[in-house]
Amino acid sequence: VVGSLVNNGHDLTFEVDQTSQWGVNISMGPLSYTYRAANLKVHFGSKDERGSEHTIADRAFVAECSEWNGTQSYFRE
């Protein structure tokens, strides 16, 4: 996978280069479309116990990872 890794002090983001032939496609199973990975973020905080953006049962965590993707047609438009 080709892309860039950026640390902005709030999260670490890997942006997938959408012009590369080595993209990550997600398909099959219950999915009706083919999706293409766009980015992966790891959120963190200045204190170990408060890095996540979301909580579970009012509990925050050290970090939180999220990914974003779109359908193949989204990237062609």
Describe this structure as you would to a colleague:
- It is a single chain.
- The protein has 77 residues and is mostly beta strands.
- The chain has one domain.
- The protein is built from 1 helix and 5 strands; from the N terminus they run βββββα.
- Strands 1, 2, 3, 4 and 5 form a 5-stranded antiparallel β-sheet that branches.
- It is flat and about 40 Å long.
- The mean pLDDT is 83.
Specify the helix fraction band: under 10%
Distance between the termini: 22 Å
Structural class: mainly beta
Largest sheet: 5 strands, antiparallel
In DSSP terms (H or I, runs of 4 or more residues), the helix count works out at 1
Write the layout of secondary structure elements.
Layout lengths: L2 E5 L3 E6 L8 E2 L8 E10 L18 E9 H5 L1
Antiparallel strand pairs: 1-2, 2-4, 3-4, 4-5
At a glance:
This protein is mainly beta. 6% of the residues lie in helices and 42% in strands.
List the defining traits of the structure above.
77 residues, 5-stranded antiparallel β-sheet, 1 helix, mainly beta, single chain, 42% strand
